[in-house]
Amino acid sequence: MLHAPSSASKGWIVARGTSSKIELHRPVAATGGHRRARIGAQRGFTLLELMMTLAVAVVLTMLAIPSFRHLMISTNLSGINNDLNGAMQFARTEAVSRQVPIAVAASAGGWQDGWKVQIAPAGTVLRTYPAVAPRYVIDGNSVTAVTFQPQGSLAPPSGSTAAVAASCLTISSSGFDSAHFLQVLPAGMVQQTTSATAPTGSNCAAPTP
Description:
The chain is α+β, with helices and mostly antiparallel strands. The protein is 29% helix and 28% strand. The protein has helices at 32-40, 47-98; strands at 2-3, 13-16, 22-25, 102-107, 110-119, 125-129, 136-139, 145-148, 167-173, 179-184, 190-195. The longest helix has 52 residues, at 47-98.
């Protein structure tokens, strides 16, 4: 008869026979053959399973690419819009603070090549902004500069006696489903809209098709 080892036997197995003689035996460790048998029982992936896993991963990646592209374009358009809005707000604040006209002017190549905030008409440059990526379009609808007067309102075009109209910049990307429209109202406030078409009644250019 075999009994489980007790704490007193310290790993020895007590074997009792029919006689009163007690024999102690050490447990026999697993042989190398037994270990190899257990290791062999742990099977890995087959080539077919690996190929199926890879195919599923490729399909999921292809499905995610359009969503990622849409998110990237949307984020970049918002970033450009925020930079332009920040430039307008900064220019207006500086015009009131310095009591001089301050302009946000497009670079020589247009708004897409960057813009700058400067004392009007062509004085000290206070801040510059870099060009945007080629896939993005900023259309000022013939507006190349937005000038704020010392009281914070828009200044009329140089030499013009006509009533001051709102200025609008359209920020879009070819083939994208919406655009940002940044309007600077005659009083100097900035109004922002995100839509597939230009706001009704505005002088904003249509988005790039």
